[in-house]
Amino acid sequence: MITVENLTKSFQHNNGTVRALDGVSMEVSAGAVCGVVGPSGAGKSTLARCIALLEKPDGGAIRVDGTDLVSLGGKALRAARRQIGVVPQGDSLLRQRTAAGNIALPLEAAGVSGPQRRTRVGELLDLVGLTDKASVYPDQLSGGQRQRIAVARALAAKPSVLLADEPTSALDPSTTDSVLTVLDRARAELGVTVLVVTHDMAVVRKIADDVAVLEDGRVVEHGKVIDLVAEPGSRVGDTLLPGTDQGDSLRPGGRHDVVAEVVLVGFAAVGALLPEAAGRFGVELAILGGGLTRLGDTPVAKFKVGLTGERAEAALKWMVERDAHVRRAPVCVDGAAA
Ligand SMILES: Nc1ncnc2c1ncn2[C@@H]1O[C@H](COP(=O)(O)OP(=O)(O)OP(=O)(O)O)[C@@H](O)[C@H]1O
Fold it and tell me: Keywords of this protein's UniProt record, alphabetized (predicted)?
């Protein structure tokens, strides 16, 4: 578990002070993948560098499994740094070393013996799916392969936390997927807690359990992706789920008695809830907008639906009782939309 409490960090510029982190607090559960997203200059990299102990915050605490890393010094700080593997932004491999040689670097620094090093490097090459590239130099690898080697190198010393700063920027979508798969495997097979800094919400959609949205050095939204997408007005939800033409379009009109926005999470809900509600309550149900997507392996749908029939309200209530997230237009006492 990583807990960040009220973290502050400022930089002096010629024209004044920039508050890169302005009281950031967030939590990442052990073994989860957390996406840190936000616009350029929001403070994402500064947060990552502070957690990686590459930058000292001005104030606040960073607890990994209960220990406040900010208060550490000397030997304890060096030991804590080894617990955090870092995949830096951009190309970070040494050109004059092979893929295997790059992965072995942290092991050499830690004094791990030759045979043990070879075994560990072999395991890591296998984890990132590049066993056949052991003796290849970075220049002969694709951008995605280089990033996968950088992930393997970051995992070499068996850290409990893996921090990746924009690991997929400048990669095409299929290459991006291969890097994300490797991060996901690190979590699933090694139990590593993964923090991914990214400006790309597709990364959050594909692998994140948790997300923190930063803006101007502050956390403006934070939580489990699957919970946030169901919250009305969530920025994460608005970005990750299909649009449905919101606002006035939720007002009942035309031939529908009730118009509502419905978010459905999981195979059972997405596959069966709407037709079952329509059949059970004898209402006509029309999909007016929205669509399907996936969050990791979980199917999620957001639809604008129009219900017609005497028991339309009862059908909606029944869906809510089955964990559908329903957003209705406010209705006045005379039944008209407010
Ligand atoms: N070493 C530094 N010296 C001075 N200012 C810095 C330094 N690092 C970051 N900043 C400033 O702090 C603010 C936050 O920068 P940071 O790189 O953390 O944002 P970011 O969200 O990662 O942006 P990007 O997506 O563009 O990388 C910016 O205004 C930046 O100019």
Answer: Amino-acid transport, ATP-binding, Cell membrane, Membrane, Nucleotide-binding, Translocase, Transport
